[in-house]
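Known limitations

Structure tokens in this collection are predictions and should be treated as such. Users comparing against experimental data should check residue numbering before alignment. To illustrate the layout, the record for Thiamine pyrophosphate enzyme TPP-binding domain-containing protein is reproduced below. The input appears on top and the generated tokens appear beneath it.
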Amino acid sequence: MLCSGHAACPGCMEALSARHVLARMGPDTIAVIPPSCMAIIAGPQPYSSLKIPVYQPTLEASAAAASGIRRALNATGRGQTQVLVLAGDGGTYDIGLQALSSAAERNEDMLYVCLDNEGYMNTGAQKSSSTPLYARTSSTPAGKLSRKKNLTAIIAAHGVPYTATASVGFMPDMLRKIDKAKAMRGFRLLTLLVPCVDGWGLPDDGGLRAARYAVECGAFPLYEVEHGTRYTVNHRERTRPVAEYLAVQKRYRGMSADETARLQAEVDAGWDWLMRLEGREAGQFAP
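Generated tokens:
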């Protein structure tokens, strides 16, 4: 479903992630791709690297465009055709959040996949609201001073049927979640962590290692939320400290011990929050 000869960087985790998403979604799918690395990978029509129809809207309008395509398909008797958004974190966490929230509130029938490389990598690696605390970008050369936005929790609060995180570093979990989301109807969001070789300062073969370390230290937990209330953590073992994850990336070079400790404390607090939500759903905690 993704042809060779596309314009992704060597070692790009986004192309690898998109290839598996597209293979799982199948040919009866229409993709919506806003300006992003994925738009460069897809290329312009009629020379697209995707073997399905692609509509490229403005950066802020992905969810709105997908809503219109969904309504048009339904009106012409093609309700079985999947509508798939492939957008970056800049067009999802930031510029596209208004349209995204509106589509979630209306429970539009689409699968929205956020390819989260934690910055505006296509335009020079500027920070986005998905960029983690202390990460160095071209617009935060001394390190970002605010925390990463929790998009999954924000969309889950809309009460949509399904939202989840996934990573190509944990392929069986990612493929299961794509299949699960595909089988549902209504608004579904998958956020895939996509380490950026250039923007994160990784070697060409370092993307999968960074993806795995992010999950193993708890910086990017794998979990899913059904109907806004049922939280399930899918990878429960934290087998390495955050410092090991930071050490493989140039964007964290020069951090002080205090900054590393603060980032570890933030990850620990986020993990405890997830455990409480999952336990509360299981009836282990008082409301």
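For this record: Residues 257-281 form the longest helix (25 residues). Confidence is low (pLDDT under 50) at residues 282-287. Please report discrepancies through the issue tracker.
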